[in-house]
Amino acid sequence: MVLMLHIAPIPVTPSSPPPLRRHRCPPPMAASASHQPKAAPVVLGCGAVGADYLATVASFPNPDDKIRSLALKVEGGGNAGNALTGAARLGLNPRIISKVADDALGRNILKELQDDGVDTSYMTENTNLYTHSWLSPNDAR
């Protein structure tokens, strides 16, 4: 079945306003829902966390040199831990899947991640592990 309809054109002159177009209004619930703040996207990371030993030295040592550090700072680190801390500082919702040792360094890493806003509920503490550590000399200049 074919239905043919003829609609006469609406004359438009420069003095008359253009014909009105009907816009569909959103339902009241959709309008109120669009004004609610959106939740931050979840960023899920799986990988290493560890302890960074940051030693401040007067100058970078030559091979086989023995030097003294001016200061030593221990912080949480590791690829996943660093990346997700950055995501939290950008306002995202980071979660980490990893494991740490059940020692003072491991507990400190967990606390640092939690303080930075990283969800650590998927992390485990293992008594048979040791905390991974990295040493990084930093030039004081």
- Specify the structural class: alpha/beta
Radius of gyration of CA atoms, rounded to a whole number: 30 Å
Shape: flat
Largest sheet: 3 strands, mixed
The low-pLDDT segments are 1-6
Account of the protein in words:
This protein has 141 residues and is of the alpha/beta class. The chain contains three helices and seven strands; from the N terminus they run αβββαββαββ. Helices cover 21% and strands 28% of the residues. The strands form three sheets. The protein has a three-stranded mixed beta sheet. It has a two-stranded parallel ribbon with strand order 1-4. Strand 5, helix 3 (104-115) and strand 6 form a beta-alpha-beta unit. Mean pLDDT is 79; it is low at 1-6.
What would the keywords be for this entry?
141 residues, alpha/beta, two-stranded parallel sheet, 3 helices, 21% helix, disordered N terminus
What's the topology here?
Blueprint: H1 28-33, E1 42-46, E2 50-57, E3 69-77, H2 79-89, E4 93-97, E5 99-101, H3 104-115, E6 124-126, E7 133-139
